[in-house]
Description:
Elements: H1 4-23, H2 26-29, H3 51-63, E1 72-77, E2 84-89, H4 94-100, E3 108-113, E4 118-119, E5 122-123, H5 133-142, E6 154-155, E7 161-164, E8 167-170, E9 173-177, E10 180-185, H6 187-190, E11 195-197, E12 203-211, E13 217-222, E14 228-229, E15 251-256, E16 260-276, E17 279-287, E18 299-301, E19 308-318, E20 322-329, H7 331-337, E21 340-341
Parallel strand pairs: 2-3, 6-14
Antiparallel strand pairs: 1-2, 1-16, 4-19, 5-8, 7-8, 9-10, 9-21, 10-13, 11-12, 12-13, 15-16, 15-18, 16-17, 17-20, 18-19, 19-20
Amino acid sequence: xxxxxxxxxxxxxxxxxxxxxxxxxxxxxxxxxxxxxxxxxxxxxxxxxxxxxxxxxxxxxxxxxxxxxxxxxxxxxxxxxxxxxxxxxxxxxxxxxxxxxxxxxxxxxxxxxxxxxxxxxxxxxxxxxxxxxxxxxxxxxxxxxxxxxxxxxxxxxxxxxxxxxxxxxxxxxxxxxxxxxxxxxxxxxxxxxxxxxxxxxxxxxxxxxxxxxxxxxxxxxxxxxxxxxxxxxxxxxxxxxxxxxxxxxxxxxxxxxxxxxxxxxxxxxxxxxxxxxxxxxxxxxxxxxxxxxxxxxxxxxxxxxxxxxxxxxxxxxxxxxxxxxxxxxxxxxxxxxxxxxxxxx
Length: 345
């Protein structure tokens, strides 16, 4: 009789196992199975990876940039961890997670952001509200009787206001090819109009090249040579002496016709930005410098060595609360167009 109890216990256990196998257990059935090794994904954690791994993830995102969802605003390689950071406005939706997913989930980090990146031209202005000091001074000089003494052309100054029909942006840099002078600004600015004017509404010239989207630069040929001349001057900053590229972590400053002169640091290079509606820009430099609408196209420079870095494309925030900006590097623009930067006064 004693030996029958263990036998019944064993039989009961076997029946229980059989029931689990055949019928399943609801609590276990509701538990999601872990993703198989190597399944695409991403992370919210800052985790160091090999530089080649993070760079490869960035290149894969660039390759499918045409499918980027609206809430994914930018991506770049974090120089500290080498992860590719994907900036997402609001909670990471399924579409955002699927876009960011990589074969090595640790290589891509999703970073929430509160406001979207946007271009920073000022659209819909009849005229810049309130002439700045430079504009008043130039207008006053222009009022001198030219019949008595012809006035010399005014310098094109980086950060000064330039306008076309209904849009205000900022002068970036002067460049030349032979005797012909050009003004470099943002491509999303020159996409708004052909004829551009400066302070005192004096005509500067005509936009002859617009690269936007894909890149973000515009080139205005200076035809008003009796009124304007090329210059390396920057409003509020140093006079340009060259165009050596500043490394990540270096100090940079920006001049613009709305907010003036502000400084910060280079945070990342080769960033890709999504402005929405299929407008994606690659190869931008990300900085901690603030900016406001109307500052687009304005120059970024190194404050100590006076090296030209690029022209403002867009950003988040403003110069009250602070923000992040992205600029179009100038070196590839000069090389692509066969231009030489104007330095000195």
